[in-house]
Amino acid sequence: MSSTPFDFAPLFPPGLPPAAARWTGRVKFDFTGGNNDPDRVPLEGLIAAANSVLKREGRTLATYGLNSGPQGYLPLREFLVTKLKTDAAIECSADDILITSGSLQGLDLVNRALLAAGDTVIIEEDCYQGSINRLTKLGVTPIGIPLDGDGMRMDALATVLAELAAKGIRPKYIYTVPTVQNPTATIMPVARRLEMLRLAEQYGVPIFEDDCYCDLVWGDKRPPAIHALSKTDNVIHIGSFSKCIAPALRLGYLVAPWGVLSRILALKTDAGSGALEQMVLAEYASAHFFKHVPVLCQTLRSKADTLMSSLRQSFGDAAQFDDPKGGIFLWVKLPDAVDTMKLYQAALSAGVCINPGPEWSVNKTRAKSRLRLCFASSSHEEIQQGVAALADVCRREFGVPK
Amino acid sequence: MSSTPFDFAPLFPPGLPPAAARWTGRVKFDFTGGNNDPDRVPLEGLIAAANSVLKREGRTLATYGLNSGPQGYLPLREFLVTKLKTDAAIECSADDILITSGSLQGLDLVNRALLAAGDTVIIEEDCYQGSINRLTKLGVTPIGIPLDGDGMRMDALATVLAELAAKGIRPKYIYTVPTVQNPTATIMPVARRLEMLRLAEQYGVPIFEDDCYCDLVWGDKRPPAIHALSKTDNVIHIGSFSKCIAPALRLGYLVAPWGVLSRILALKTDAGSGALEQMVLAEYASAHFFKHVPVLCQTLRSKADTLMSSLRQSFGDAAQFDDPKGGIFLWVKLPDAVDTMKLYQAALSAGVCINPGPEWSVNKTRAKSRLRLCFASSSHEEIQQGVAALADVCRREFGVPK
After folding, report:
1. pLDDT by residue (tens digit) across B18-57?
2. B247 and A61: CB-CB below 8 Å?
3. How far is B219 from chain A (nearest CA, A)?
4. Cβ–Cβ of B114/A8 closer than 8 Å?
5. A334 and A195 part of one domain
6. What is the spatial distance between Cα B275 and Cα A248, in angstroms, rounded to a whole number?
7. In CATH, what number is assigned to the domain containing residue B82?
8. Which of A170, A269, A283, A379 to mutate to test the interface with B (most CBs of B within 10 A)?
9. What are phi and psi of B373, to 5 degrees?
10. Which residues of B101-122 are buried (b: 16+ CB within 10 A; e: fewer)?
């Protein structure tokens, strides 16, 4: 028998994404990704929850779905019924909720239930990279709607919907992150949510509401979810525990009418999401969620302040941004001369990692000199040092800041 | 605004699976699924592991991938390096392993990396339903190879490979569950594993080895994995903690050469598998795995005995089966008059759930009067009562047992 390694390459089907690179560890100053503050992981509460829930009902781990069936651990869904009503004004029952392995699985399931190659969907012009990439891989055309300080612009949405209708194109959905938009950190006011619902109904297009950052709102109470404002059950709503508890816990949720949920369930062939995580989270959240979130938000807000002051200090007027209304990131505009795709590469060599704007937008030209900076996982000191290091690289490469 | 519910149905793409039915709870006598013995969930060990690992490094939950990168929690991969060497004679490093959300995600990832509609793969004639269904949904043709008491028959495999080669068809892989085959519970001897490798090399077809039941072997030590016997790195190996620890923990693993693993990693866009489960399992398994498994196997073997004696008692000679070599299920042949698809429906009404043979085989005719009975999750008493109830239904519907 020969010992020449077998060559798998001729077996790969067309359209496979490029090979991943070997992971080489985290960089020193990491302003990317949805990582959170390690000191705000509610460790004691999670440990106590693990103890009590496992002692009480750990033997159900012997059963797929924990005797709760395929929609997920019932106490977690029951907590969500309360949470969604309290925070988002959504009235639903545990039967309307599917627990997912992160809201990313929610994205995948909704896309698989609704999309085929050649379809059109509407999204926010600047948008979560993972959402854009998923659509591109599916051969679906995303039409970007410009944003302002109140999120997706309804005048632009109305124009696009009318134009598409004139061409006989019915988009499969309007995807929006209305509550702490990613990456602009805007919150869509109620009036605009109602206008979106009016347009959605007029054109027969459902809304896909991604509320994964909705817990991280500073100041006033968040507006009701679009799902809560709909009178026609035309909204699919997803959310996550990644941002409000811990990202490495892969737990999200999906709320949808049964006509859709029953099709999505048929696509969820993973034998359930992680049960230990569901049990521990349900046990923890039922007792502590509403106390934990404000403490986390206070930490995040203070880091946002540090990031903004660091940018002012290191970049001066060269860095423009709006005060974020919540979340874990800042969407920053640098002078037009700066190409953030190139800045990304140069900064990486200096141990600083950023999200270059073109990866977070369907308007690559407009996003060319923009970047997303996440502030949640770094310490205040790392934020200051990292921004200073980024400014040094930017000055060297593009002459700004002066 | 109208309040007529929005109709999603016109938006569904072609080929969507039928809607799932509402879950209505478990039946009284459930002989289906990979559920395990609730009393054998190592609860105290898992609780202690949760405490110690969370206290020591729980703050890493703030980071996607737990500072271990996209291949999964490093201590879990390091445990697997030891386990795979000790049990399966596989020599690999942590860099060769990807932690997956159950071995089902492993199946999906391997299929996405290698298959396209129109492809052909080789599988065992009687085979895990989930594997068959996945292939069918992808538009891939599975060619079934008959089994005997030593697993997949190599004479039949040689014939099929030659026939396909003559037609210019190169199958994408040979899928096998060689160690406690599902549903026949056979174990393929070393000589046959080597012959499969010889044929695989001769025809340029890689092997996809699913070892998800490999820990549940009674009696002698299991043979080396096919992966361990390959000299050309032409085997993709997957495994699971569902069967040996607890099925609701959604954790599996995949071992493959980097040329394949790097393509699979690019397809795993779920931001990692559940971190809490990975941490707790690694902590538990490193200390207790090799002591836990024999105790579990003893429990399972005694339940298999109860199932076999119950079948003899209630069905007499009408039920034929081989003594299983491990696992959690028995593959039973009833008289030709029995149609197990119909028996399944009738039994369900009587509170007994079985896996009808045609759902676990690509040879629907041969499997018509066969069924799979899982014995792990029911108590000894439930097994006896459930088999008696099944015999009553079968007698009423088909006149057997007499």
Report:
1. 999 999 998 999 999 889 999 999 999 999 999 999 999 9
2. yes
3. 24
4. yes
5. no
6. 5
7. 3.40.640.10
8. A269
9. -120, 120
10. bbbbbbbbbbbbbbbbeebbbb
Amino acid at the residue A279: M
* Same domain for A252 and A104: yes
Query: B62 pLDDT exceeds 80?
Result: yes
Give me the mean pLDDT over the B168-191 stretch: 98
Select from A38, A41, A232 the Cβ nearest to the Cβ of B2.
Answer: A232
Give the residue from chain A lying closest to B204, CA to CA.
A6
Residue with tokens 């085979």: B127
**B111 and B246 inside one domain:** yes
Cβ of A280 within 8 Å of Cβ of B276? The answer is yes
Domain end point (choices B248, B264, B288): B288
Report the relative pairing of strands A370-374 and A207-210 from DSSP bridges: unpaired
Q: Which CATH number covers residue B30?
A: 3.90.1150.10
Nearest residue, CB atoms, B11 vs list A25, A41, A114: A114
Establish if A201 belongs to a structural domain.
Answer: yes
Cβ-contact B144, B123 below 8 angstroms: yes
Set of chain B residues whose Cβ sits within 8 Å of the Cβ of A8:
114, 206, 257, 259-260
Q: In terms of domains, do A332 and A345 share one?
A: yes
Give B187-239 pLDDT, tens digit per residue.
999 999 999 999 999 999 999 999 999 999 998 789 999 999 999 999 999 99
Put simply, the answer to whether B266 touches A35 (Cβ < 8 Å) is no
DSSP state of A96: G
How many helices (H) and strands (E) chain B has is answered by: 11, 14
Residue B4: inside a domain:
no
| Of residues A20, A248, A266, nearest to B18 (C-beta) | A266
For residues B215 and B138, membership in a common domain is answered with yes
Residue B67 to residue A206, Cβ atoms within 8 A: no
- Residue that is last in its domain, among A222, A253, A288: A288
In a domain, A13, yes or no: no
pLDDT of residue B1 exceeding 60, the answer is: no
**Whether residue B58 is found in the same domain as residue B37:** no
- Are B62 and A12 inside 8 Å of each other by CB? no
Please report whether residue B82 resides in a domain: yes
Range of the domain at A193: 43-51+60-288
Give the pLDDT of chain A (402 residues) as one tens digit per residue: 457 899 999 999 999 999 999 999 989 999 998 899 999 999 999 999 999 999 999 999 999 988 899 999 999 999 999 999 999 999 999 999 999 999 999 999 999 999 999 999 999 999 999 999 999 999 999 999 999 999 999 999 999 999 999 999 999 999 999 999 999 999 999 999 999 999 999 999 999 999 999 999 998 789 999 999 999 999 999 999 999 999 999 999 999 999 999 999 999 999 999 999 999 999 999 999 999 999 999 999 999 999 999 999 999 999 999 999 999 999 999 999 999 999 999 999 999 999 999 999 999 999 999 999 999 999 999 999 999 999 999 999 999 998
pLDDT tops 90 at residue B66: no
Q: Residue B277: beta bridge partners?
A: none
The ipTM value here is 0.96
Query: Helix axis angle, A129-138 relative to A102-114, nearest 10°?
Result: 30
Assess contact for B377 and B38: CB atoms under 8 A. yes
- Amino acid identity at B173: Y
Question: What is the number of domains present in chain B?
Answer: 2
Q: Do A105 and B270 touch (CB under 8 A)?
A: yes
Q: How far apart are CA A160 and CA A180, in angstroms?
A: 23
- Amino acid A136: pLDDT: 95
**Cβ contact A276–B277 (<8 Å):** yes
Shared domain check, B342 and B232:
no
Residue (of A303, A315, A324) closest to A369 by Cα position? A315
A233 and A105 belong to one structural domain: yes
Contact B307, B374 (CB under 8 A): no
Chain B residues closer than 8 Å to A242 by CB: 271
Q: Which amino acid is at B208?
A: F
